[in-house]
User: Fold this.
Amino acid sequence: MKRLAYAPFVFLSAWCLAHPASAEPAWGANCLRCHGVLLADTIFVTGEDTMADPDESATGAPDRGILQVFQAPRGGTRDLEAIVVGLDPGDTYAVEIRRLRFPGVENGGTLRYTGDCEWPEWGESANYYTEPFIAYTWGSDPDEFTFGLNIQPDADHDYYDLVYAVAGKFADGGELFYAEQHFYVQVVDLAGDIDGDGDVDLSDLATLLAAYGACTGDPSYDPAADLDDSGCVDLSDLALLLSNYGTGT
Assistant:
């Protein structure tokens, strides 16, 4: 599997910094203005958490119906996965994440994040491609991709309409092609961040322990510490908090 945000982060960052702002991703901007052949059923997102059809009436965002949703916690990281299928041997292609700058579709929120590589010509909140100047070759190079999206603690709760796109060049005939799939990233609270400060730390643990063993109706019951909404603050809540302990800012 090829990762867009992967272990050798320092190497990739240094590689990007070594190339000037004139760098262009493989085959340009991956748009239909340059890639005239629109393909269907070529790129698919995978590993989503759920499906949703957000209410866009307050923002006027396009109603795309029910789409796959990746739930991304504030202060945490969510891998966005996709797979490319159906190309022919010798076809070359590059993959990108698009629409990272667009506001949320329900509330007009801002997706504050960091990623694997920031292209200076597009500013801090840039599009993200596999690697500049490099196109993969079908049959010998990766067909699965993962983009690690690091959500900042002050990101707005909302659904964000993103796109995984692939563009390239057919080996037979040399035509340029493009395909995409829309999906949502839903920014949610980090499980265990009881005080809402963007991390799970001693303050959150102390709040949970103060309510530990209490159930609805008990004087010491704290619904914020009942992380699984079971009606009681118990071992499952503690386990959930500890699974994220130290995560965030």
Observations:
- The longest helix spans residues 202-211.
- Residues 33 and 178 are 10 Å apart (CA to CA).
- The helical segments are 9-17, 202-211, 235-243.
- Confidence is low (pLDDT under 50) at residues 5-30, 117-129.
